[in-house]
Amino acid sequence: MSAQMHLGIDVGTTATKAVVFDCDGTVHAQESVHSAVVHSKAGWSSQTMSGVWDTVVKTLRSICEQVSPELISSIGVCGQGDGLWLLDENCHPIRNAILWNDQRANDYVRSWMDDGTSDRLSKTCRTAIWAGSSAAIFRWLKDNEPENAMRARHALCCKDWINFKLTGELTTDFSDASIPFLDLESRAFVADAFEMLGVQELHACLPEPQSATTLNGRMTAQAALETGLLAGTPVAVGCIDLASMVSGMGLDKTGDICLVLGTTGVVAAVVDPEPFTTPPAGATLVHPYQENWIKVLAPLSGASALDWFTSMDEGNFGGKNSKETAERLNGMAAGVPPGANGVMFLPFLTGERAPFVAPHATASFLGITASTSQADMARAVMEGVALSLRHCFEATGLENPGQVFLTGGGARNQLWCDIIASVMNTRIVASDASDHGVWGVAIIGAKAAGLVEAHWPPVRVETTRSHKPDPSHVARYESLYSAYEKCVASSAVLWDAGRDRHATGGH
């Protein structure tokens, strides 16, 4: 057992990461390769499917230089969720994958919201549909690229595409299948859901979902040749990246809550299956291990908001790496008091999907005066994302647990963690590791291969930091949050006006 190692692969939007762990969580090899995103039009977001596979190949070849492939006993893959990854009858990509944060289907989503379709759909999938979901994208494809829609024979998620390249098997799991066609109670696709959205053809393209810990297949000779891994290595069905993060943090009990600060922000809570009462905010996923569900509220802006802000002034913020950029941002924002001297930032740079769906929402700075500084705006951006996370948490209806685990790249930013702790008035426990997703899916791979106990995987020991709310800041942020809620509610009129101008070609 001591010689067995488990490979986790996390195929994100901007990078592919692979890490080899033993069962204690010790890292024996790791690599990350940048992945390019195509923005051919404003609001459009896609990736070449072959390009994403190439990042996996490069990552795994580096892994094989660090550790002998003979020691790798299992593989688990997680990846960015939603979007649309289409294959033709020969299992070749039809076009670029359209991603989860794409906005080309905004008008369809708005019409489904206006006529009540979104609410009716949520009765089974417990999710508020958004533009980056497979249904919305395929509906757009039918109307705008009908030849590509007609050629579609298989519709996958990101990790399913990589699993197919590794094993030749077409599968998906319950977590990726949860949105928006799955009845969470029966764990079966609902034919009426496809008809409701006008995408009946998509039903036959979807693989039947399985448990994340099911064996997907084994590494093919061709995949072994390309990656350097051994043919025959077992590969799990795997899951969406957020579900693997929840697993990697050992969250399985009702009421367990975590925050993720990656490209997007995420509030995730483990909840018991429950009868439908009202249309939900956000999404609901099937837990990879348990019968529980994961209630997910994932605003579209997280660390991406900070990236956007710093990219506009490379003179002040440009650094040789993201760490240096963050240090420059923090150095500026740290000198500004809570509340950013009256400046507030609404972080809706690419619309919004949680805790409300607003495809045409836009970002804005409020409270700017002639005395406003760049440092004020820097602080406001960090606070704006924190306020958005609190807005999502409030929408869960759950009690404040007094302590929330935080992971993701943003968890390494200690000033931001301090701000979030005071905005949410709860202790934030953060880890610099930020690899809980790839650790979680590595153990999912080990479970699929029968190499760890079936009830719950081992939990590794890791070093964490604790960020307590600052009592002198909490009252200020309570007032700011109240103002934030009012500003968000009143902004809908402006967003609708902007949509109407766009629809009529106005400027």
Oligomer state equals: single chain
* Beta-strand content: 15-25%
> For the largest beta sheet, what order do the strands appear in spatially?
18-19-17-16-22-23-24
Indicate the low-confidence ranges by residue numbers: 501-507
Task: Kindly report the name of the CATH homologous superfamily of the domain at 5-249.
Answer: ATPase, nucleotide binding domain
- CATH topology (level 3) name of the domain at 5-249: Nucleotidyltransferase, domain 5
> How many strand units?
24
The biggest sheet amounts to:
7 strands, mixed
Task: State the name of the first-level CATH class of the domain at 5-249.
Answer: Alpha Beta
Explain the layout of strands and helices.
Layout: E1 5-11, E2 15-21, E3 27-34, E4 46-47, H1 49-66, E5 72-79, E6 85-87, E7 97-98, H2 106-114, H3 117-125, H4 134-144, H5 146-151, E8 154-156, H6 158-167, E9 172-173, H7 174-177, E10 182-183, E11 188-189, H8 191-196, H9 200-203, E12 209-210, E13 215-218, H10 221-227, E14 234-236, E15 239-240, H11 241-248, E16 257-261, E17 265-271, E18 283-286, E19 293-297, H12 303-311, H13 314-317, H14 322-333, E20 344-346, E21 364-366, H15 374-396, E22 403-407, H16 414-424, E23 427-431, H17 436-448, E24 464-467, H18 471-504
Describe this structure in words.
With 507 residues, this protein is of the alpha+beta class. It has a domain at 5-249: ATPase, nucleotide binding domain (Nucleotidyltransferase, domain 5, 2-Layer Sandwich), CATH 3.30.420.40. Helices cover 39% and strands 19% of the residues. The strands form eight sheets. The chain has a seven-stranded mixed β-sheet, sandwiched between helices. A five-stranded mixed β-sheet has the order 3-2-1-5-15, sandwiched between helices. Strands 4-7 form a two-stranded antiparallel sheet. Strand 1 (5-11) and strand 2 form a beta hairpin. Helix 11 crosses helix 17 and helix 12 (303-311) runs antiparallel to helix 15. The longest helix has 34 residues, at 471-504. The termini are far apart. Residues 501-507 have low confidence and may be disordered.
